[in-house]
Amino acid sequence: MAGRACQDAMDSYNTGGSKLMKIGLGILFLMAGLLLRAQLPLAGEKDTYTVRWISEYPAGRKEQKKSLGQQMSAVVLGKKPNTLVKPFGIVGSSPTEFWILDQGSGSIIHVSDGNGKEIRSMQRSKQLFPSLVGICAGAGQELYFTDSKLNLVYRIDRDKAFRFTKNHVLSQPTGIAYHPLTDQLWVTETAAHSISVFNRDGTLWRTIGHRGTAYGNFNFPTFLWIDADGKVYVVDSMNFRIQVLNSEGEFIRCFGAHGDASGHLARPKGVATDRFGNIYVADALFHVVQIFDPEGNFLYSFGSQGQGEGEFWMPAGIFVDDKDHIYVTDSYNSRIQIFKLEKR
User: Fold this and answer.
1) Is 84 exposed, middle or buried (0-12, 13-18, 19+ CB in 10 A)?
2) Which listed residue, 37, 70, 265, 284, has the most CB atoms within 10 A of its CB?
3) How many CB atoms lie within 10 A of CB 220?
4) DSSP H helical ranges for 21-119
5) In sequence order, what are the residues at sequence separation of 6 or more whose Cβ sits closer than 8 angstroms to the Cβ of residue 18?
6) What distance in Å separates the CA atoms of residue 89 and residue 95, rounded to the nearest whole number?
7) How many domains does the structure of the chain reveal?
8) By residue range, what is the domain housing residue 297?
9) Which of 153-167, 211-225, 235-249 has the lowest mean pLDDT?
C-alpha cells in the first residue's frame, strides 16, 4: 500500500506537480512546533511516547558566555573552545560519546564527556576534508566516512583517517552504512544515482540501481541507514521518497511524496530507525524531523524553524542509538541537538 501510494505520488509529480504544494509552509511549522509535546503511538505498542529535548553540543548559549577574564585566561592557556561550523553527519553511542563530521571546518570531531577533539589527518597531519557527508560505525570499533568531493571513503583507526576504497572511483559518495548481516559497507553514489556495496577489504562487490523513478532506481540518492534486521533505507532525494530494500538490494516498499503537507518531503536528508522500527527523516527545508511507522505511514513530526531548544535551521544528519537517544545535526545553527524518546 505504501509503495503504491509512493509511486502514484511520483507519477503525479512527474506529470504536473503535487497539488499539495499550495498549502502554506507556515501551517506545517506551527503544527510541528506543537507536536513536539504531543503523544506518539509507536508501531505495535499500546503505550504512547513523546520526544523530549535533553541537550546540545556545544554547550548552550548561556553556558558559552564567559567573563573577559575567563576569555583572556583561555587565550593565555591555549584552550580552544568547543565549536562547530556546519555539522553534517553523526554517529554515537551515548549523549556524551559521539562523532561529528563538521563540513564547515573540514574536520572530524570526536566528542567524549562533553569535550571535542579534532581529527584532521589523512596521510598528512593538517589536510582537511572538503566535503564530509556520511559516517557510520562498522564491526567492533571501526568507523567509516565519506567525502563527496574527494570521491573517497575513509576508515578511522587510532584517531587517524585512512583511505578505504581501493580500486573503484566513486562518483560523489554521500551516505554510508554498515550491514551487520553481510559484513559489508553500503555507499550511495549521488552523481551516479546508485548504491555501491563494498567488502570489508575495500573491494567493490556490486552496484545497485541507476537513474529513474521506478522501484529500485534513484534520483540523486543521499543518506543511508541499515537496521538490525538488515533492511536498507535510502533517501531518494530528488524522487522525494524513502526506499526500503532488503539485504540483496531488492525493493520492499517506499513512502513519501513531493509536497509540504505532513508526511510529504521537500529536502529529505538524514534517515534512521528506532528499536520499534519507526523511521525518522530530517527534512532540511521544513526544519523538522518527521516520524513514520515501519510501513511508511506518517505518525508525527517535531521541531520548527528557529534557534531555541528543539528548533532547527536546515537539519541534516540523524542518528538513533539503542537507548532511544535521537541525535540531529542542526547544520545552520552550528550545533548537535539530542533528544530522548520516552514513554508517557
Assistant:
1) buried
2) 265
3) 17
4) 25-35, 61-64, 68-77
5) 9, 12, 257, 258, 259, 264
6) 15
7) 1
8) 2-343
9) 153-167
Q: pLDDT band at 22, cuts 50/70/90?
A: very low
Q: The CATH number of the domain where 33 resides is what? A: 2.120.10.30
Please state, in angstroms and rounded to a whole number, the distance separating the CA atoms of residues 252 and 263.
Answer: 19
| Cβ(270)–Cβ(316) below 8 Å | yes
CB 132 within 8 A of CB 331: no
Q: Dihedral sign, CA of 189, 192, 193, 197?
A: negative
Q: 273: closest CA among 321, 218, 305, 214?
A: 321
Place of cell 559497507: 185
Q: Which amino acid is at 307?
A: Q
Task: Give the Cα-Cα-Cα angle 317, 331, 123 (nearest 5 degrees).
Answer: 75
Neighbouring-strand partners of residue 153: 146
Yes or no: say if 164 and 202 are a contact pair by the CB < 8 Å rule.
yes
* Cell of residue 77, nine digits: 592557556
